[in-house]
Amino acid sequence: MPRVPFHYIDLRTFCYATEDEKRVEDALRHFLAEEFEIDRVTNTGHHGDRIVVLSARVESADGMRVVLDRLAELDAIDRVLEELDDRVDDNCSFFLRLDKQAAFNGLVRLGEGITLRAKVEAYPAKHEKAVANAREAIELAGGDADE
After folding, report:
1. Per-domain residue ranges of the chain
2. Do the Cβ atoms of 15 and 21 come closer than 8 Å?
3. What stretch or stretches form a coiled coil here (predicted)?
4. Pairing between strand 6-16 and 113-120?
């Protein structure tokens, strides 16, 4: 993939008191380069339970390629492409929700648990241009384009 048309990609998940933090981190790491640092913020839930927010902002082109390569493994990638107009907002942000349990098991599925938000490069910053750029990036990641 010659160019990555994103300014950054944010990944975020929550680790609830009933979950093993290492396993939740492993699920998030499934989408990241090996050495990538994950931010942790500990919060308290409504009932006093501990909730750890794990997040990562990927800003390098190589790091974003790793995320996109993982997304290319998504069996519902055609569905994502069909829904792209709804998945990109007017601020040129692309959104996906991914299955945390599947990610822990080394799979990529749409579902609950991990939120992905990518700021799409679009000049001019218009919804239609952002959708086109996101489509191109996803299609290239899914193909064997080695330019």
Report:
1. 7-142
2. yes
3. none
4. antiparallel
Own/partner pairs for 18-25, CB < 8 Å, 24+ apart? 21/52, 21/54, 23/104, 24/52, 24/54, 24/100, 24/104, 25/54
Q: Read off the pTM.
A: 0.91
Q: In the chain, what percentage of residues exceed pLDDT 70?
A: 95
**b/e 7-16 (16+ beta carbons within 10 angstroms → b):** eebbbebbbe
Q: For residues 44 and 16, is the Cβ–Cβ distance under 8 A?
A: no
pLDDT digits (tens, 9 = 90+) for 75-104: 899 999 999 999 999 999 999 999 999 999
- End-to-end Cα spacing for the chain: 6
| Beta strand ranges found along 5-142 (DSSP E) | 6-16, 39-44, 50-58, 93-99, 113-120
